[in-house]
Amino acid sequence: MTRFDHYFHQALLGLSQQKLRRALHSIKPEDGAMVNHVSDSKLLCDFSSNDYLGLSAHPLLKERSQLLTAQFGAGARSSRLVSGTLPAHFQVESKVANFKNKEAALLFPSGWQANASVLPALFRLSFEQTGHKALVFTDRLNHASLHHGCAAAGVRQIRFRHNDLSHLAALLEKQKQASGLRFIITESVFSMDGDQADIRRLRQVADQYDAFLYVDEAHATGILGTNGQGLAGGNHGADLVMGTFSKALGCFGAYIAGSKLLCDWLLNSCSGFIYSTAIPPSMLGAMDAALDIVPTLSESRRQLAAKSDLIRNMFQSMGLDTGLSSTHIIPVITGDNETTLSAAEYLKSQGVLAIAIRPPTVPSHSGRLRFALTALHDESMLGHLCQVMGTLAPSILARRAK
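== 8-amino-7-oxononanoate synthase ==
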């Protein structure tokens, strides 16, 4: 017992009453897209995983992970600026920079940590160089880590309507005479909606208003763009690209890519880099292998896009609301929390794992089932999914109509 357990208990009761309480469930990966739900020994087809290309079990990732562990040990032993930097850190960063067509890159332990600590370091530059706080323009539906990075920096977000670049331009115009460096913060593929930002137009708006463009590419890297590069790399993309290895690249960790001077500034100012133990050798091996494999998977990307179009069209033909999805992430908007939870439970009873997404992960009254299509889903799995959703659709539509 701890001193405040009574308060924890009351707070958790409140979450339960609102159908917002969460719990952990053990999952054991099986062959392909199948998982074993350990608590009830139920075999499920996993439509919740971010392992979009199925690389988490790829033999080369496992082999290279084991190889670097054998060479350098289980851990990196310290932070990068102490004695934790291995030759493999530089090798992977060089590969990331080449992959994203940028001058340089830095590795981070996770995407959350990168966003939460890189943004304060960037915004600090504004005050140091201009004497004024940064002017930060953010998409309303940005990932929680991006919002957290802004909050940690103590800046006020100037939020534009989701993917509404006319609104963004109007807000920038309104602040045209204000002092301070300007930053535009967005994602390229939004993780809960599956829609895409218009990076080319964002670049034009950023150039027009002398703004720094920061793009989170976590869910686009490996899947979209030339050779899976994503949408925001290269000279005509973002000034800073953040991405992760924990989704299509099948392992763990994150990176930022941009100019050499940008990376050098972050090396000297970003708390999430300076004070964190370095990425361990095992993950460096997996990262290195993933970066070699991903550019070769054009056919897997083509097939994934075709599967995604098929499932999205099928859901829409059932009358289900898939929002603005145009990618491998397909939400089915269910509305209230109770409907969302009961729908997820029904899917589980039919052998399908799709997680119920509720506030605060998404806005109020926009609960959803989030389906993530992967290269591991075969025709029979997709057919079963459509059959089950066809049975479930009338109850979802009836509940939403009330």
